Every structure is written in C-alpha cells, then in structure tokens.
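User: My notes are a mess, but here's the protein and flavin mononucleotide's SMILES. Can you give me a structure?
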Amino acid sequence: MNLKDKVLLPCGKSIKNRICKAAMTERIARADNFANQKHLKLYRTWSEGEIGVLLTGNVQIDRNHLEGPANVCIEENTYKEQLPFLKKWAEEGTRNNTHLWMQVSHAGRQTPGEINTSPKAPSSVPLKIPGKKFGKPKALTPTEIKEIIKKFTFVAKVARESGFTGVQIHSAHGYLLSEFLSPDINLRNDEWGGSIENRTRIHVEIIKSIRQELGSDFPISVKMNSADFQKGGLTPEEAVVAAKIIESAGVDNIEVSGGTYEQPKLLGLDKVSVQPKRSEIRKNSTIAREAYFLKYAEDIKKHTTVPLMVTGGFRTKEGMERAIKSRACEIIGVGRPLCANPFAIKDLLEGKIDHLPSYEKTLSLGPGPLSPSSPFRLIQALNAFGAQAWFYQQIKRMGNNKTPNLKMGLFSAFRRDAREDKEAFRKLKNKTTTHT
Ligand SMILES: Cc1cc2nc3c(=O)[nH]c(=O)nc-3n(C[C@H](O)[C@H](O)[C@H](O)COP(=O)(O)O)c2cc1C
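Assistant: No problem, the inputs look usable. Here's the predicted complex:
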C-alpha cells in the first residue's frame, strides 16, 4: 500500500492516487454568486499538482444560506447563466486525470447575519456565539426539508452536467446537515429528529435521491464530523452509527473531520473555543497526533468498509503512509499546505520533500503574549482568525493569477480579508451582477 496507488471506489471509478485536496471555501465568486475566471485559474493550478481528487470549496444550494459572501451558489432559476463557467471550471479541474468533486452545502444556522438574520435550521437553537453575527434560526417545516433534499439533488445534477466527476455532501463543521446529526441542535420530535437513525434520515434521502437521478457510477462522498466535541453534541459513538447508515445508503467515500464554529477542532484549534465550558476535551495524546481525527476514523473503520478519507493535520509522508498501510483510511485529505504551495503533493510524491509545509505553526501576530499560545483568549482567537484570513488571501491570490505570498503578515491578511468580506457583503446586498 503506497500513496501513489490507485483507489477503486464502490461506483467503479478509480482515483489516480491517495491524496485529496480538502474542500476550502474560495470566497472568490462575484456578487451574483457565480463561478468565474478566478475559479478556472485556481483549479488549473491545483490540477497540475499531482493530486488525486480536488474537492471544491463549499458550493451552496441556496443564496439565503451561504457560508460566506463570495461563495458559489447554484439555483434552478439562474444556473443556466453560469453553466458555461461551471463547465470551464470542470475542464480545468479535471486536467491530468484529476477528479474534481463539488462540495455541496447549506450553511443552516451558521449563515452569517449579514446574509440572513433568520436562517433555517433543524430547530430554533441559536449559535452560542456572543454578538449579533448570527441570527436566531427558524425550524424547518417537513415541506422545507423535502425542498432541501431536492436542491441538493439539483446541484449534484448540475455538477455532473458540467463535467465535475463527483460530489461531496457537506455534513461537517456545524452546517445544516451536521446540525441535523447533533442532538443538542436538532430537537425535532418528528421523523427527522430524535434517534440517530432519524437524525441521519435527511442524509439517506439526499443520497438516495442523487443516486436515483445520477445513476450508480457517479462518486458520492459525505464529509461528516467524527464528533462535535461539544457537551450534548454528536458523540464519537453516534458518529459510528451515522457512518454505517450513510454507507448503507450507497456512498463511495466518507471523509472524517470534526467540530463546529463553537468548537473549531477541524483546524486542530483545541484551545480556541467560544464555549469552553461546553467543550469536550480531547486527550493531549490525540491532539498531539499528526492527524488529529485518525483515532476516530479507526473506530468508524471497524464498522464500515467504504473508502474512508481523514482530513486534519496530515503533514509528513511517513504519517500519511502509516495511516494508509495500517488501513485506518484509504485517502488522505490535505488542506492548508495547498493554499500556499499548490505543488506540495507533487514534490512529496516525487520524493523531493518528506513533509508538507505547516504554515499554521509559524503564523503569529507577534512573539510571546501575542502568539497563538498567549494566555489571553482574545489574542488566541485573533491569531486563529488571522491565520484563516491568511489562507483565504493566498487562495484569492492564486485565483487572481498571482503566486502565494509567504511573507504576508498575519495582521495585514486579517485586515485585508475583513475589508474584502465587508465589500463582498455590500455588493451582495446590492445584488450586483457583473461577471469577470
Ligand atoms: C481557508 C479554509 C477554508 C475551508 N473551507 C472549507 C469548506 O468549504 N468545506 C469544508 O468541508 N472544510 C473547509 N475547511 C476545512 C478543511 O477542509 C480541512 O478540514 C482543514 O483545513 C483541516 O485540514 P488541514 O490540517 O490539512 O488543513 C477549510 C479550511 C481552510 C483553512
């Protein structure tokens, strides 16, 4: 078993190697939320990096439930207008026998307040984040849930029609489908809430509906939390049950991640919790492990046979090979290193490097008390948000045909990104419709 070996998916399609570029929101769509020239440039670059699968950043099914202002969104009444760009995006992202899977999502209660002050969610449980950034959600009606299933199916259909070679249903990190899985967010007492079987029902219905529409030979992946790491949230034990149900519904891959906006463990930020008292503490040995969700994936693996992908923290060739050889997972997901070195995987597979860059380890507002290990929670949070902005800025640079700028400071990235978000929110409000 080797990182260069092919992966055969249950649908019959194969992937050229065992590496996937994890989904990373690009935030480069225009005010009409259409894909554009920047996506083409970005994915052309990544498709030259010897990566088996490129997952897109989250593509939304509903403009009123974006994860961020410049997300791509595909809706029935406008999709024909952006189809030419989607087709070109697929053409660029599938060069060199690369798979390009569209990550399909609905932000649920994590929709920013600038976009929707009253977003839809499984139940009316607000995010416990101070301030007014997120509105109080409204519980979905059963009819609205059926509409959401149709919209996920519609976007998957458009993805295939455009030439994308697979789709991923986003059910991690506290967005809508992840909210359905969480017992502290999904308080429904109808068929969509209660037992873990009921909380996974929407996933099963979406998968069945996509399969029915697109046939048995199209890769469908689901990204899910190994746990919410929040007291009262989805536990690792329930995640195993949910994974078994999702596997039986007929998927080709499950990607294991974890955490939510309240507990941002997806980036390994165990210290940064908006709700420290409600945080489920992970063992230090788990956090210190290179791939911090691997232990949870091993538990899922014991009960499933579908190819698993684990994302979060993989940086060394040795660590990746160990995970593959021990059959803990079949695919390695890699995110942040590819924001600032799109060819890092090529270098790794060709033996030029034996570990990927860990930019997140050196990004800092300043030394000592200004660093991510500052005793002050605010500084810790600023470092975390600043680092995230730094990665967004590098993605945006690549979309703008520029090379990543490794010298970019954390604070200037933070300020620039905040300014751009503000501008994008303003344009979104004005519903500008110019394309680039
Ligand atoms: C800039 C950025 C954007 C992200 N956007 C998404 C996204 O759209 N969908 C998603 O499932 N995860 C998203 N993530 C999480 C990554 O897919 C991945 O789970 C995380 O970065 C951990 O992997 P890494 O340690 O290899 O970076 C994002 C992460 C970053 C850094």
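DSSP finds 15 helices and 13 strands in the chain.
User: Great, I'll file this with my notes.
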